[in-house]
């Protein structure tokens, strides 16, 4: 049997039962693929079900506000996915009369959709023979064929795409693509792959050469940057606080946060309250206390945030306009959501 036949035979016996497997509606396939980027199925499932319940069509998603969409997305991370999803839903609804494009070329032109997602939608929904290449596919192919080209290099991206395309069963491309993704998630796992029961074990190069733990290869990662965040959790006598929306192009664009003072190192109370940012924001008399003596280290892909939350009590402040009881209505980064949960417990 050839590679695709073995793979599809395995898939038909072992495939995961997932809600988006029972449809060829491109909206649902698109939503599932965007959600599962950087997210495990177990975590993404509840979000998918919640989204499809609240936004059952592209039109429903397009008519929602960005704040509503970000709040619904809260906790999944990589929020640019949600913003792009919302932008593209509005484009399809308003510019394409609600009709989802049906070819790879048209789909990949949509904002927030790359080669992998376009290939998945085109093959699963429209039977276009274009292969997907995601982390699972890289791992399966690198191990089975013993490929040592780094998967995050220009040469590697080209090599693996061409190889996946050559292996694709063009008579059932959607099934093949789902099969190789499931195989990577269930059998050819990053850690502790199930080599003993693998249908490819006798011909897998990595297994024969004891390279399973080494493949796939990646080029050296970008150096992680350290940042020091000091959030000022303002509480006035009439139970109001300050929340501002992040509008820059950095992390958490569109989400809300407490006033932030970023420093080049960890600072103490004296250093914080003597800073120009603190004085400008809070010129009135305040009482300040540190909520978390031990810094919270929040790890993102290329940066680690060393974070302190400072509780700042004051009689009033001209910027404090948000009632504390409404704070849960705002989409916030998970770092702040976790703080709010802990803070409420201690109140």
Structure notes:
This protein has 347 residues and is an alpha+beta fold. The chain folds into two domains: 3-208, Hypothetical protein, domain 2 (Endonuclease III, domain 1), CATH 1.10.340.30; 225-346, Nucleoside Triphosphate Pyrophosphohydrolase. The protein is 43% helix and 13% strand. It is built from 15 helices and nine strands. The chain has helices at 3-14, 26-35, 41-54, 58-63, 66-73, 80-95, 104-108, 115-126, 135-145, 154-167, 173-186, 205-208, 269-273, 276-281, 334-346, and strands spanning 225-236, 240-241, 244-245, 256-257, 260-263, 287-290, 296-299, 303-314, 322-323. The strands form three sheets. Strands 1, 5, 6, 7 and 8 form a five-stranded mixed beta sheet that branches. A hairpin with a 3-residue loop joins β7 (296-299) and β8 (303-314). The longest helix is centred in the N-terminal third of the chain and has 16 residues, at 80-95. The mean pLDDT is 95. It catalyses: Hydrolyzes free adenine bases from 7,8-dihydro-8-oxoguanine:adenine mismatched double-stranded DNA, leaving an apurinic site. Residues 35-186 form the HhH-GPD domain. InterPro entries: A/G_AdeGlyc_MutY, DNA_glycosylase, Endouclease-III_FeS-bd_BS, HhH-GPD_domain, HhH_base_excis_C, HhH_motif, MIG/MutY, MutY_C. One of its GO terms (molecular function) is adenine/guanine mispair binding. Adenine glycosylase active on G-A mispairs. MutY also corrects error-prone DNA synthesis past GO lesions which are due to the oxidatively damaged form of guanine: 7,8-dihydro-8-oxoguanine (8-oxo-dGTP).
């Amino acid at each position: 049997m050839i590679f695709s036949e073995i793979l599809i035979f395995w898939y038909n016996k072992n495939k995961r039962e997932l809600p988006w497997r029972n449809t060829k509606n491109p909206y649902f396939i698109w939503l599932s693929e965007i959600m599962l980027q950087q997210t495990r199925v177990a975590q993404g499932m509840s979000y998918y079900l919640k989204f499809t319940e609240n936004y059952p069509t592209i039109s429903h998603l397009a008519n929602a506000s960005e704040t509503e969409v970000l709040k619904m997305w809260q906790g999944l991370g990589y929020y640019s996915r949600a913003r792009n999803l919302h932008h593209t839903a509005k484009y399809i609804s308003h510019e394409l009369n609600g009709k989802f494009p049906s070819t790879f070329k048209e789909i990949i032109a949509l904002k927030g959709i790359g080669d992998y997602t376009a290939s998945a939608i085109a093959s699963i929904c429209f039977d276009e023979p274009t292969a997907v290449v995601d982390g699972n596919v890289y791992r399966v192919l690198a191990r089975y064929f013993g490929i040592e080209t780094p998967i995050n290099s220009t040469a590697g991206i080209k090599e693996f795409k061409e190889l996946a395309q050559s292996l694709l069963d063009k008579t059932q491309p959607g099934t093949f693509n789902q099969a190789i993704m499931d195989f990577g998630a269930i059998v050819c796992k990053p850690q502790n792959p199930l080599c003993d029961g693998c249908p490819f074990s006798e011909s897998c190069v990595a297994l024969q050469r004891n390279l399973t733990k080494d493949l796939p290869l990646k080029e050296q990662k970008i150096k992680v940057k350290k940042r020091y965040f000091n959030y000022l959790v303002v509480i006035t006598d009439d139970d109001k606080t300050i929340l501002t929306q992040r509008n820059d192009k950095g992390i958490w664009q569109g989400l809300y946060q407490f006033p932030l003072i970023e420093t080049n190192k960890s600072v103490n109370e004296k250093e914080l309250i003597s800073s120009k940012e603190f004085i400008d924001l809070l010129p009135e008399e305040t009482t300040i206390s540190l909520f978390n003596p031990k810094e919270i280290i929040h790890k993102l892909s290329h940066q680690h945030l060393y974070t302190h939350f400072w509780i700042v009590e004051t009689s009033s402040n001209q910027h404090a306009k948000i009632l504390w009881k409404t704070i849960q209505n705002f989409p916030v980064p998970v770092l702040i959501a976790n703080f709010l949960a802990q803070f409420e417990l201690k109140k």
